[in-house]
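Anyone? Bumping this.
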Amino acid sequence: MAVAAISKYEFAPADSQDKFHGAQLLYIGWEDHLLFCSPFCFPFPPTMRFGDVVAGPMQAAFGYHPDFAQIDWAKVEWLKSGKPVALDFDKSLAENGLKHKDVIRFRTPGLNGINGTCN
Amino acid sequence: MSTVFLALQTNEDTRPIIEAILQDNPSAVVDEQPAMVKINADGRLVVRRETIEELIGRDYDLQELQVNMITMSGNLDQTDDEITLFWKS
Amino acid sequence: MDMQVAKKKLGLKERYAVMTRGLDWTPSYQKMEDIYPCIAYEGIKIHDWDKWEDPFRLTMDAYWKYQAEKERKLYAIIDAFNQNNGHLNVTDARYINTVKLFISGISPLEYVAHRGFAHAGRAFPGPGPRVACLMQSLDEIRHAQTQVHSISNYNKYYNGMHDFHHMHDRVWFLSVPKSFFDDAITAGPFEFMVSIGFSFEYVLTNLLFVPFVSGAAYNGDMGTMTFGFSAQSDEARHMTLGLEVIKFILEQDPANVPIVQRWIDKWTWRGYRVLTLVAMMMDYMLPKRTMSWKEAWEVYFEENGGALFKDLARYGITMPKCAEQIALEKDHLSHQAWSTFYNYAAAANFHTWMPDEDEMAWLSSKYPESFDKQYRPRYEFWREQAAKGNRFYNKTLPMLCQTCQIPLVFTEPGDPTKICYREVDYKAEKYHFCSDHCKEIFEHEPEKYVQAWLPVHQIYQGNCFPEGTDPTAEGFDPLAAVLKYYNFENGRDNLDFDISEDKKNFDEWRGQATKNI
């Protein structure tokens, strides 16, 4: 539907990739860990190696949780836009098919928050 | 019928008004909350000028109620003599 | 008999007719569509503007008289509050954080409402709604001014309120109320009236003002209680205007019904999302609780709103469909909101804390279905960690909803263990939402929401640092730069209540007030 307006109503999106100084946005959420109130938003260069995202910014963002140190990354299940996806730690974000404003989630079987309460 | 209500500030101005409302609406129920009095009634609530005037012993303009009103629920109709709150169904 | 003295004054109905329609005229040398250019494009059809009548039949002369009386009462009490060191009479210093939330989140909206009603009043050709909008526009600027004035008495002593208007335009969580109102005032005049006049004022305002004001009364805050009641005394009139506008539009033409229904659906949801802040205020920030958020929702929305929509059914209007999801969220909303602000305590202009044992017991009794299962374990963990000196401060920016601008903190309807994610592709760009309702609102008017100023994205674009900041300089600290841009004093305005200057000062001043030192 179009916006009801008195004249032409068209605007450029406020958050297109060209506005992020070479970075693209990636949203990352950890399933069953609501201690973190919401998924995170990160700006990364598309050339960044996915393994470096996990070891650096994700460690910094999620590391407060005692479950984080126990994650066996080989067993982690990844979702992109809610659907299972395989992500290669040695490939870049772009090579993994991750584009600007994509959202990924990870599930850590056996690790379901403080005493299994999804917190 | 659904409930209509009128909430007024708890103060010296509203004390006789609440008394008048309860006289005129025998089925109305008073709910006292912090600093506020809520009067609930089934389907219809009437505030009558004459009853208030009898209780306060002076002329009263129903628009004075504007100063002490907090909230209400229902359709409203105001004349010189009455304020009515009501639901049609 | 027959000695009746002729009435000197006109009756209420005659006076109303003379002072509204009687003051109007038909233009002779300009076309109506040139004078009222905004009245047709939303698709609403009005055939007879004179059918609109204010049920209070309030005219401008009476308006000034009663408003002046309200102001006199208000300022008498504000003076007394100051003369009596009223700020030290509140239950405890945690309470003052509700005042901070109010001044930076709500009071600026009063000012925008003033502008919105002035604009709507100008747009309407009918004298009845024009006069009613004029009154409401004046009410709203009065509310903004009296709130700023009353709260200035707290600002002298406590942190976080020193630059509320600057903050309102910049701070991440304040973009939620700000963008809500911006959305409303950039709509046409009819949508504005349905959004603010009806959905917000009639359907939801009781949930904002009544809990805030009776909460203030219950917590010994005479200043806030008084401006609250003074503002609230105008609200009954606003609610009546909101309901009359809806009935008037619906009675004018059956083609108006589906347009109005869509606006009611949209704005009830938009308003409800903004009330997330009130939910958390009621359940967590008032040291003495009046009622829980869930109870307030049941009384003021489910019962009262139920009666309203039953009454509107004769026009073909139904309860907004979001009511179902809201019913599922009522056990969770306030806890999810408080967790969010506990997470981001470093980036707010008020303090947060963990509820004590008694408060946890109150929460479990009010929320038997959810609190002990979902939220208590989270809080106990946080409390243990804080006791060990490891208080949780989340420093990574959250993912926001494109429509309501709240982080994606809400869980799936019916599953409180899973965050709710929704997304849409529009013109080669991806957009994310917290709920089906926010997603549908976007899909109906994508061009409006693609422009959204989302604080997190703006920070990453480099638009939220003080002028002259070089983000490429070595050792650049983005959080510190953003706090500076917000005009927050790091370590003073933010962080946990337990370590706050407010707490320390309040305890000391209250001690001085009760002892001879």
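Late reply, but here is one note on the structure posted above: The CA atoms of residues 20 and 128 of chain C lie 6 Å apart.
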